[in-house]
Each structure stands twice: as structure tokens, then as C-alpha cells.
Please model this.
Amino acid sequence: MRELSVREMRAGYGAIAEALATEGELILTHHGKPFAKVVPLTVGVDVPDAAAEQRERARAWAARQRRFLAGQPELPPFDWDEFRADR
Model:
């Protein structure tokens, strides 16, 4: 089992991928102290589609905004000349 420091991990994805391919497991360290164990996913593990989940959240948020804005009173048109006169 190989240890990989945070500095090495930040250097690039290649270090993590190479360590997982050769060792199978990997321990992440910070200031020499282990804090996480990384293992490769096994075949058949159901990984949620994060992009699809994010799109659904964005759609739901947009729908809530539309409902909120629909209930707001209509503002009168802005008159720049009146604004300048008040200055």
C-alpha cells in the first residue's frame, strides 16, 4: 500500500491513477500523518450521475424562482430623466 502526500496529490491526477493501478490501494497523508484511504471502485458499483443530479437541482431552483417572481408586484418603468433631475 503506497502513501501519497497532499502535495503529490495536488500535483496531478496521474499520481493517484498510477498508484491505484500499481498498488490497488493508497493512503493519503498530510504532514506525514495518514488521513484517508483511497480504493478503486469495483465493477457493478452504482455511482450516481452527479451531472444529472446537478441539472435536476438547477431545474428545481429555476422553477422555484419563477414561482416566486410570478407573485411579486410589477414595478413601474424606470425613468432616467427623473433620476437625473433628483441628483
Summary: The radius of gyration is 26 Å. The chain has a mean pLDDT of 86. The domain at 2-38 is CATH 3.40.1620.10 (YefM-like fold). Residues 18 and 39 are 12 Å apart (CA to CA).
